[in-house]
Amino acid sequence: MSKPLQSIAAAARGGHSSRDLKPAGISGTWFALFVLFALNLLNFFDRQLIGALGEPIRKEFHLSDTGLGLLSTVFTLMYAVVGIAFGRLSDRWCRTRLIAAGAAVWSLLTAASGLAQSYTQLFVSRLGVGVGEATCAPAAHSLIGDLYPPHQRARAMGVFMLGLPAGIFLAYMSAGVLGPALGWRSTFLIACVPGLIFAALAASMTEPMRGARDTGRAAASYDAVNSPYLAVLRLPTMWWIILSGVFHNFNMYALNAFQAPFLQRFHEMTLKEASTVSAVSVGAVGAIGLLAGGWLADRISVTRRNGRLLVAAWAMAIAAPCIFFALHQPKGATAAFMVLMTLGTMTMYVYYATVYSAIQDVIEPALRGTAVAIYFCAMYILGASMGPLGTGILSDYFAHHAMLIAGAYSMTAEFKAAGLHSAMYVIPALAVAASLTLFAASRTVAKDIQRQDRAGKESKPVPEKRVTVS
After folding, report:
1. Residue 331 and residue 256: Cα distance in Å, rounded?
2. Cβ–Cβ under 8 Å, residues 176 and 264
3. 23: closest CA among 206, 221, 215, 216?
4. Percent of the chain residues topping a pLDDT of 70
5. Mean pLDDT of 132-151
6. CA gap 423, 407 in Å, rounded
7. Ranges 79-83, 249-253, 324-328, 351-355: which has the least confidence
8. pLDDT tens by residue, 112-126
9. Is a pLDDT exceeding 80 seen at residue 17?
10. What is the C-alpha R_g of the chain?
11. How many CB atoms lie within 10 A of CB 227?
C-alpha cells in the first residue's frame, strides 16, 4: 500500500498507530466474538420486550394495534437514520469504544422505558434506545470481518447472530415469568444491568487491524476514501440484498411484535403460554437455522461464490409455505401452529448467517461498516419499521371490516382477533418475494466480487495529505 493510503488507514483506525493495531490471537478472537454475541443478544432482548409485553402495555395505556406497533416503528426508524452516521464512524474510529458507549446508552434508556408514566414518555425512551443500539451492528460486522478469514465468516457471523434468537427467546421467557409476577415495568428495569456489564467488557477488547484477514485485497481503494457511499451502491448485488432485507425484516419485526398478541387473542392463550410458545417458535429455533445455515453456506461457498445467497434463497422458499399453513390452523390447534411456525422461522434465520456474510464477501474492508449501515438504514426504514406499523394498520382495518360485516356497533375481542389473524397473512407473501430477490442476487455476486478485487489492485493513488496520529 502506498504511503498516502497508509496514512488514511491510520486515520480510519481512529488515531491509533499501526503498531497499536494487530490481528487478534485465537483467545482474543473468541473472547471478542463472545462479547459481540452477548451484546447482540442484549440488543435484541431489549428491543423485543415491547413485543413480548405488548398486551399489558396496550391495556395500561389504552392503545390500538396501530399505536402499539408505532412503538416498534419509531425505534426502528431512529435506529436506521442514526445508523448511517455510526456506520461511517465505525470505519474511521475505534469500533470497540463505539460499541461500549452505545451499549451503555441503550441499557440506561431501556430502564427509562420501565419508568415511563405515559405513552409519550415510553415513545421518547424507545427513540433513545434506537440511538444506542444503532452503534452495534455496523461496528460488530466490521470487527468480525477483521477477526475471521473469508472461509470462516459465515460461521462466525452465525455465532454472532445467535444473539438474535437468544435475545428474543430471553425476552419472551422474561415476559412470561417476570411479567405476571413483577409487572412489565420491572422487566425493563432488570434488563439494564447486564447491558452495563457487557459495555464494560466491550471497552476492554482489542481493536483488530483492518483488512488483516483479507490477503490479496487492498485495505482502502480510491473509491473507498473519496466516494464511500457510491462505492457501495454501484454494486448490483448490494441493491438486491437491500431489497431482500426490506421483505425479510418486515416479516421478522411483524412476527416479533404481534405473534404473542395473536396467540393470546386468536388461540386464547395466557400471557405465560403465549410467551413460552413464542420463545421457542420465534426465538430458540433460530439457533439451528443460524448455525446450520452458516455451516452449509461456508461449505458451498468454497466451490461457488454465490453459494451463501443460494442457501438463503432456498431457505426463504421453504419458510413461506410453513408460515402460511401455521397461520391457517383453526382456533385451538396450537401444537400444529407451533410445529409449522418453528419450521418457518428456523429457515428464515438462515438469512442472517448467509446474507450478512455475503456482504462481507462483496465489500472491501475499508467500507464494511458503511455498507452494513446503508443496508440497515434502507431495510429498517422500508421494511422493519413498516412490519409492526403495517401489520397493526392492517389488523385494525380487518377488525373494523369484521365488525361491519357482523352488523355490530362496538369493537370486541373477537373482532380484534379476526383482524390480526387476517393481517398476518402478509408474512408468507413477502417471504416469497424475499426468496425471488435473493435468487436474483446470486446471479450478480460473483461478478461484483471480481470487480471489487480488481478495483483494489488497480486503485488510483491518493494525493498526499498530512494526518496527525496520536
Report:
1. 20
2. no
3. 206
4. 87
5. 83
6. 21
7. 79-83
8. 988 888 888 888 888
9. no
10. 22
11. 12
Whether residue 23 is predicted with pLDDT greater than 60 in this model: the reply is no
pLDDT tier for residue 226 given thresholds of 50, 70 and 90? low
Confidence (pLDDT) at 103: 92
- The one-letter amino acid at 79: Y
Summarize pLDDT for 292-307 with one digit per residue, the tens: 888 898 888 888 888 8
Q: Which fold has domain 23-213+223-457?
A: Growth Hormone; Chain: A; (1.20.1250)
First to last CA, the chain: 21
Separation between Cα atoms, residue 58 and residue 56, nearest integer Å: 5
Measured from the Cβ of residue 334, the count of other Cβ atoms closer than 10 Å reads 17
Strongest mean pLDDT among 13-22, 68-77, 394-403? 394-403
Q: Is 163 within 8 Å of 154 (Cβ atoms)?
A: no
Q: How confident is the model at residue 26 (pLDDT cuts 50, 70, 90)?
A: very low
Structural contact between residues 80 and 385, judged by C-beta atoms closer than 8 angstroms: yes
- Name the pLDDT band for 7 (thresholds 50, 70, 90): very low
Separation of alpha carbons 375 and 242, rounded Å:
5
Q: Taking residues 252-272, what's their average pLDDT? A: 89
Three-state helix/strand/coil letters over the chain = CCHHHHHHHHHHCCCCCHHHCCCCCHHHHHHHHHHHHHHHHHHHHHHHHHHHCHHHHHHHHCCCHHHHHHHHHHHHHHHHHHHHHHHHHHCCCCHHHHHHHHHHHHHHHHHHHHHCCCHHHHHHHHHHHHHHHCCHHHHHHHHHHHHCCHHHHHHHHHHHHCHHHHHHHHHHHHHHHHHHHHCHHHHHHHHHHHHHHHHHHHHCCCCCCCCCCCCCCCCCCHHHHHCHHHHHHCCHHHHHHHHHHHHHHHHHHHHHHHHHHHHHHCCCCCHHHHHHHHHHHHHHCHHHHHHHHHHHHHHHHCCCCCHHHHHHHHHHHHHHHHHHHHHCCCCCCHHHHHHHHHHHHHHHCHHHHHHHHHHHHHCCHHHHHHHHHHHHHHHHHHHHCHHHHHHHHHHHHHHHHHHHHHCCCCCCHHHHHHHHHHHCCHHHHHHHHHHHHHHHHHCCHHHHHHHHHHHHHCCCCCCCCCCCCC
pLDDT category at 330 given cuts 50, 70, 90 is very high
Distance CA 233, CA 110 (A): 34
Closest Cα partner for 157 from 55, 19, 297? 297
What are the residue ranges spanned by the domains of the chain?
Answer: 23-213+223-457
Residue 313: C-alpha distances to residues 54, 68, 134, 363, 425 (Å): 32, 32, 27, 20, 20
